[in-house]
Amino acid sequence: MNLIAAVDKNWGIGRKNELLVRIPADQKFFRETTTGKVVVMGRKTLESFPNGLPLKNRTNIVLTHDESYRVPGAVIVHSKEELHRELARYDSEDVYVIGGETIYRQLLDECDVAHITKIDFAYDADAYFPNLDERPEWRITADSEEQTYFDLEYYFYKYERAGR
Fold it and tell me: Could you say which of 29, 95, 97, 125 is the most buried, measured as most Cβ atoms within 10 Å of its Cβ?
């Protein structure tokens, strides 16, 4: 499985259920990377999308404890066991964990690749991605040149779990 996220200097990913910043090139990378694939998210992440609707041209799987939660066009699962049964139908290389913090933490150890956009700025965040730079099992295997969006600098990184 894969992870995909945009993080700030402190590995912050959001505040009040919103992205910290919207960078068009990062959003394009996300769209191009996940289109035609399976995206796994929590309920709050889905609700942060426009009109709370699933992402187009993807299989949207939502992990939530809320047994009554229903969204047209999304597959709803209520436990990691149920999620794994659903994910068994797909090639794990086609599965992208897209947030939020709780889902990233729950599924990090099951993932082999992380696509991380690092933004060189510290925002006031209340949700965070696990800091892969502090985890010896994760290595940067690809990176981009410096990118800019107005006065923001950012980089695209690919992390891979060592020894798998």
Answer: 97
If you search the block for the tokens 């599965």, which residue do you land on? 95
**CATH class assigned to 2-161:** alpha beta
Average pLDDT over residues 25-50: 97
SS3 76: strand
Give every strand in the sheet of 12-15, ordered side by side: 18-19, 12-15, 127-128
Tell me the domain boundaries of the chain.
2-161
Rounded CA-CA distance 34/147 in Å is 21
pLDDT band of residue 68 (cuts 50, 70, 90) is very high
- DSSP of 104-119: HHHHGGG-SEEEEEEE
